[in-house]
Design goal:
alpha/beta, five-stranded parallel beta sheet, four-stranded parallel beta sheet
Amino acid sequence: MNSVKPYRFPYKDLLSIDQFSQQDILTILDLADHYVEQNRKPDKKHSTILANKTQINLFFENSTRTRTSFELAAKWLGCDVVNMEVETSSVKKGETLIDTAATLNAMHPEFIVVRHPDSGAVHLLAEKVNCSVINAGDGRHSHPTQALLDAATIRRSKGKIAGLTVAICGDILHSRVARSNITLLKLMGANVRLIAPTTLMPYGVEVFGVETYTDMREGLKDVDVVMMLRIQKERMDGSFIPSEREYFRFFGLDRRKLAYAKPDASVMHPGPINRGVEISSDIADDLTRSLILEQVEIGVAVRQAILELLASNITRT
């Protein structure tokens, strides 16, 4: 049994960070801390909290770490998991998202985990089913579980979130990770800076209460955490950067640019990494500065926490 205080998690679905209060997020992070320690024990299938429950992973976009993380999280809590192969499903025969949702809902799963290339698609699906829907990333809009695992990683590394200065660097324009992290970090009291070339900076982003920079040296000065983003070539329909070589020269993280941050500044990246484009290999692999592998580990624990909290709500309704 864990030591986290009982808490009524008042949600059927996890669709975006906007739905949460500070208390909601602290509850998720506290429970995730518990699962990080449990997962380091030899017997990882240590719980039957989700016994007799079923999770369907429905990924319309390729993903290795997110889908695997959700699958491990569910299985380690005793849940049955079905990975629906979209490429060989009725979706490829013209079935609509709503029809797919209705079909899956008729099989009575407790959870559907969805990644979709269109913003808002996961919200639409959640309106059509009875089970819990978890947003594993929709278009440019939201990636709430990534933001939660990033917050959990920062808190475990720095001991707090409030008062820290976090720089989010790179392809802000196409990044659902950036949008969810901005909302969560601001809610938890962090100062957020965005660093990107003007072509990859969303118009009007200052309304979210963040500072914006187009120079890495200025933007990284005295920050506590450097969060690098992947260049999302699949979402680019034009020429946003002159070349990958030029991009790395001005916006890739190397030792020279990192020296402007605090001496103990941590480095993060949601993956997958384009080495030599977004970040140099010597920093990505530097275990004294890089938290990239910790993000992967803590991602499973955060998703266990989310599933447990959503399941507790399912049993009451």
